[in-house]
Amino acid sequence: MQLSLVRRQSTLAHAQTQHEILQGDLVANLPHFDEALQQHHLPLLHAAGIDVLQINVGKLCNQTCTHCHVDAGPDRRESMSREIAEAIISALTRLEIPTLDITGGAPEMNPNFRYLVEQAHALERRIIDRCNLTILVANGYRDLPQFLADHGVEVVASLPCYLEDNCDRQRGDGVFRRSVEALRLLNELGYGQADSGLRLTLVYNPVGPSLPPSQAELEVAYRRELKSRYDIVFNQLHTITNLPISRFLDDLLQTGKYETYMRKLVDSFNPQTVPHVMCRTTLSVDWLGNLYDCDFNQMLELPVTTKRRRIEDLDCDTIAQRTIATGRHCFGCTAGNGSSCQGAILS
Ligand code: SF4
Ligand code: SF4
């Protein structure tokens, strides 16, 4: 196994290599995801509609977190063009998809981010910004919190710990301090405050190769610690399992923990989560306008199974009944209480 094959700088070859690793020799003794479904007398995964259009506007980010499944960073050049952004707004206008979920990278660094928000707001869609917080206090972006508030954008913000050392270990030196500064700004604008209508969700993901703890219990601890230490409030906490993709996969391979982690995910398979995995009601679009079942499949270059795979051709009737493209990474969504962009699947 050449570890250099799974290092930074994603290419198609890189993505295929990741997918091969997930299907390959190192875990040959583990079942495939579809076999696990069969063992539990569950049908293959199929979509059940499209409630959320999740768009990944590119890999440019002001951070380089160790667990990043996008392999994002300041040196990345992949960025959604105005033409694709317009195709997304056209699809939203044509179709009855209630939510636009914008992710990246740091999506706010895309030059079309504000256009997308303004247009989706005019269409009266729910808008989610998956925000790393530090971008809100970076030079050139300090008016962003007010912009987000003015357009009623929900902020879903990564904060892997309420302790500075743990957070900075995963996300980089100084990230925690700047995240706290950003959270205070958001709170001042009404985010996280009861009845303001401006929702602030925090996202926890484990620092190492373990499953997240109980979402409900961790939310209580976050609420208590952030209030007492920093006078910060928020609406809810989501816990998310790290999927073995990109930098996190690289880290698992380098530290010799890949097989153990995959075994943990497979052994924790919970069939009750399967009907609720997010790909059943979410459609993912990459910065070039290609369609995927989820952001993880996007990173693995596993396209939707339908013939039409472009945002310009999006046809809800066909795509809403598609078979989902699965792989061993799907055990990450179905382990324990399950994991999705909306947090734990089961309470
Ligand atoms: S995890 Fe988020 S904030 Fe960190 S590098 Fe990746 S996209 Fe950027
Ligand atoms: S990784 Fe999760 S969301 Fe993506 S296809 Fe697999 S089960 Fe669905």
Listing every helix as H and every strand as E from the N terminus to the C terminus, the arrangement reads HHEHEHEHEHHEHEHHEEHHH
Write the CATH architecture name: Alpha-Beta Barrel
Number of domains: 1
Based on secondary structure, the structural category is alpha/beta
State which percent range the strand residues make up.
5-15%
> Can you summarize the main beta sheet?
8 strands, mixed
Order of strands, main sheet, comes to 6-5-4-3-2-1-7-8
Question: Bound small molecules, which ones?
Answer: iron/sulfur cluster
Helical proportion?
25-40%
> How many helices?
13
Low-confidence runs (pLDDT<50, min 5 residues)?
1-13
The CATH topology corresponds to TIM Barrel
Cα distance spanning the termini: 39 Å
Computed Rg: 19 Å
Q: Whole-number average pLDDT?
A: 92
Q: What would CATH call the class? A: Alpha Beta
Give the overall form: globular
**Strand runs, count:** 8
Commentary on this structure:
Helices cover 35% and strands 10% of the residues. It has 347 residues and is α/β, with parallel strands linked by helices. The protein has a single domain (3-334), classed as TIM Barrel. An eight-stranded mixed β-sheet has the order 6-5-4-3-2-1-7-8. Strand 5, helix 8 (215-230) and strand 6 form a beta-alpha-beta unit. The radius of gyration is 19 Å and the shape is globular. Residues 1-13 have low confidence and may be disordered. The chain binds iron/sulfur cluster (2 copies). One iron/sulfur cluster binds at residues 277-279, 293-294, 296-297, 324, 326, 329-330, 333.
